[in-house]
Specification:
- By secondary structure, this protein is an alpha/beta fold.
- The chain has five domains: 14-71, no CATH class; 84-304, Rossmann fold, CATH 3.40.50.300; 312-509, Rossmann fold; 513-619, Arc Repressor Mutant, subunit A; 642-722, DNA polymerase, domain 1 (Orthogonal Bundle).
- The strands form four sheets. It has a seven-stranded parallel β-sheet with strand order 3-4-2-5-6-1-7, sandwiched between helices. A six-stranded parallel β-sheet has the order 8-13-12-9-11-10, sandwiched between helices.
- The radius of gyration is 29 Å and the shape is globular.
- Bound molecules: zinc ion.
- Zinc ion (ZN) binds at residues 485-487, 501-502, 505, 507-508.
Length: 725
């Protein structure tokens, strides 16, 4: 009888041994040795897989004997050590329930398995966790995953345990009991993945416990699985160190954490250097170089999967009233789950109250809330009790919730990296999702204030860093105010080339016209030069006011109505003048000084416009803006997006709702978020394939051996019932 309740798995009892489900429970790594093999030895991964495979045949017929476990596998093919290709595919299906890798995953896994240090830059939702979890299982022994946030660790460990992998975490939020249990797992050598906060790496106790883990020759015991000959010392070795959110090591990144600087020291202190694998979702070339240098990666394999997330629709709105715009959007998306990001705590409270008053199932999150409330609110959102989360950027890093259908930014973030990371929390399940930014000029000023204010200790911030951050803010502002394809702008920020028209963003959908603006450009540039001739410089608004002939107190007082370019663009709307002015600045024909009041000035390239009369054209929205067509925005027939739409349309909605209810019941009974039981995508696959038995259930994307054993009967019974069988 195994008394241990490890990895969130059900306790195995010998009385129920003839039941197939109990058998499966005891086949979970940490229970194998207690329940079946009492000799104090444990098994390398391949061995456990073999046992699972051996029993998977009779399982289909119902029951099987205890002795099934004790017999050597009869099939010689199974006993043969498979090559690494077969192994990684076996682990992918066995534990995670997938039959194919996503782009980039395999290359990273291969590099790590070959013992090469690795830096992988993969967007949110590309499946970066699998890239180290699979090698961790195949390498055996221990893998340490350095992770910045407790919520991230908790989620990952839950998901791994749910998949039947022995994983644990060490952080300040553990109870004494949890801490003791983690330490016990660590010294037993059963733990495959240990998630650790960076602050803990140089902690004496932690280093001491690792010493035991790393073991040495004298505890070496030949495992009873002599055919595969894995020795105790190997199983206990620290084989890999993974650095998640690796951009935190760089102060040029958007989320610098000083504690990340300890990682390199920790690695240097290890007697035997393990493989080092670093992962991040966002990294500009500068940050990338920093990661490589600061972590001391040796001859690393560097991989970037590309940043495009085809299932995300990008939109920028410049509403007069943000609350009304938000309300309109949320009413359209009432049944979906999503995040509304605000720039400040005050805005969070304000928006939260506004939506609460209008009966939305809304919750909130920011650093000013008490810990208990913050956690309760986060859980309410994760467990689908609330559908809208209003939060500051303190929320979301490490949140793995896959069914987030939209991310609305109520305020513009301070740079594109933050924006893309936050917006990228939508559509992690690969379903169509929307990312909407509600922009206003005040957002720019708020961010400038945040960037230039003194640090918490009152210290003046570093001037070079301020300039760097203001430059990033400028690029973010261009994203929000520009008129070209939003996707192409995001991708070009990350150094990727992209077509100028994606057809799945608000700018593309407002139906662009290519318009010759040569004359308008000449007028604007010469206005800036005239102003400079008078020894003056102004911001964009004032320049636009002058050319449009605005009759304001400011203009009269400064005699700007006497400039020769005053009123030369009267016929255009203020908005259009601003679009053209923004375009000229963005293309470098005019420059914009950073600072509290950014001023427009002429530059070298301005000469091309006024002296060389260079022709300039730009994509401008038609003056009469037609409403956005939802279906037209989702791509031509045959494209990935069109297929996604088709899949959603043809879904058996009634069955989907039933499956969701079942999933919710299972999740709340186990006190884990629904998506850890199954992602929405897995439920949709069930709706399409309608599996009626265990074998068919195993074909569902996201169903591995453990989940099949745990939930297969429940879900297939429900599907049979739904089909009237
Ligand atoms: Zn576009």
């Amino acid at each position: 009888m195994c008394q241990d309740r490890i990895g969130g798995l059900p306790t195995f009892e010998t009385e129920r041994v003839s039941n197939a489900v109990s058998y499966a429970a005891c086949l979970i790594p940490c229970c194998v040795k207690h329940a079946v093999f009492r000799k104090g030895t444990s098994f390398p991964l391949e061995r456990r897989l073999i046992f699972r495979y051996t029993v998977s045949m009779p399982r289909a017929e119902g029951f099987f004997e205890f002795s099934d476990f004790l017999e050597e596998p009869k099939d010689k093919e199974i006993g043969k050590k498979p090559d690494s290709t077969n192994k990684k595919h076996a682990v992918l299906k066995e534990y995670f329930g997938y039959t194919a890798f996503r782009p980039g995953q395999e290359a990273v896994i291969d590099a790590i398995l070959a013992g090469q240090d690795t830096l992988a830059v993969m967007p949110t939702g590309a499946g970066k966790s699998l890239c180290y979890q699979i090698p961790a299982l195949l390498l055996g022994g221990l893998t340490i995953v350095v992770s910045p946030l407790i919520s991230l660790m908790k989620d990952q460990v839950n998901a791994l345990r749910e998949a039947g992998v022995c994983a644990a975490c060490l952080n300040s939020a553990l109870s004494l009991q949890e801490y003791t249990e983690t330490m016990r797992l660590l010294s037993s050598g059963d733990c495959h993945l240990l998630y650790v906060a960076p602050e803990r790496l140089l902690n004496e106790n932690f280093l001491h416990s690792l010493k035991n883990v790393r073991g040495n020759g004298d505890t070496s015991v030949e495992d009873m699985t002599d055919g595969l000959s894995v020795r105790h010392q190997d199983k206990a070795r620290l084989n890999m160190v993974v650095i998640d959110e690796a951009h935190c090591v760089s102060q040029w990144g958007h989320d610098f954490r000083p504690s990340y600087l300890q990682i390199a020291e920790f690695i240097r202190g290890l007697k035997q250097r393990p493989v080092i694998a670093a992962f991040t979702a966002t990294a500009t070339p500068k940050v990338k170089d920093d990661i490589l240098a600061m972590l001391g990666l040796r001859d690393p394999y560097v991989m970037s999967t590309g940043f495009d997330r085809q299932n995300l629709y990008f939109e920028v709105q410049k509403p007069k009233n943000k609350k009304n715009a938000l309300l309109e959007f949320l009413q359209r998306n009432k049944r979906k789950s999503g995040i509304v990001y605000c720039g400040t705590r005050k805005n969070v409270e304000d928006v939260w109250e506004f939506l609460s008053d209008r009966n939305f199932a809304v919750t909130k999150y920011h650093a000013g809330l008490e810990d208990a409330e913050r956690h309760a609110n986060q859980d309410a959102f994760l467990y689908d009790r609330k559908t809208v989360m209003v939060a500051t950027n303190a929320f979301g890093m490490g949140i793995d919730k896959s069914n987030v259908s939209y991310v609305v930014h109520y305020n513009m973030p301070k740079n594109i990296e933050s924006y893309y990371q936050e917006a990228g929390r939508a559509g992690r399940d690969g379903e169509s999702a929307e990312c909407v930014l509600l922009y206003s000029g005040q957002d720019v000023r708020l961010n400038e204030f945040l960037i230039t204010r003194p640090g918490e200790d009152g210290a003046e911030p570093d001037e070079a860093l301020i300039q760097h951050n203001l430059e990033l803010l400028k690029k973010m502002t261009w994203y929000a105010t520009g008129t070209d394809c939003l996707r192409s702008r995001l991708l070009s920020y990350f150094g990727e080339s992209a077509p100028s028209f994606c057809g799945n963003c608000s700018n593309c959908n407002t139906q662009f016209d290519e318009i010759d603006v040569t004359v308008e450009a000449q007028k604007l540039v010469s206005c800036v030069m005239r102003v400079e001739q008078r020894g003056r410089r102004f911001g964009k608004t004032m320049i636009a006011d002058i050319v449009r002939g605005a009759n304001t107190e400011k203009i009269r007082a400064q005699h700007l109505d006497t400039i020769s370019t005053y009123g030369i663009m009267r016929e255009l709307s203020a908005h259009r003048v601003r679009l053209i002015l923004d375009f000229l600045i963005e293309r470098g024909y005019l420059a914009l000084d950073a600072g509290e009041y950014p001023v427009v000035r002429s530059c070298e390239m301005s000469r091309e416009i006024v002296f060389d009369r260079k022709p300039v054209s730009m994509m401008l929205p038609k003056e009469d803006k037609p409403p956005r067509k939802q279906t037209a925005s989702l791509g031509e027939p045959g494209t990935v997006l069109a297929e996604a739409v088709q899949n959603v349309l043809s879904l058996d909605e009634a069955l989907f709702e039933k499956l969701r209810d079942l999933r919710r019941n299972i999740a709340s009974a186990a006190n884990i978020p629904s998506y850890i039981v199954f992602a929405d995508a897995a439920l949709r696959d069930m709706c399409r394939k309608k599996p009626k038995n265990r074998r068919e259930f195993l074909d569902i994307s996201g169903v591995g051996e453990i989940k099949m054993e745990k939930y297969g009967d429940l879900f297939t019974a429900l599907i049979r019932e739904h089909e009237g069988e």
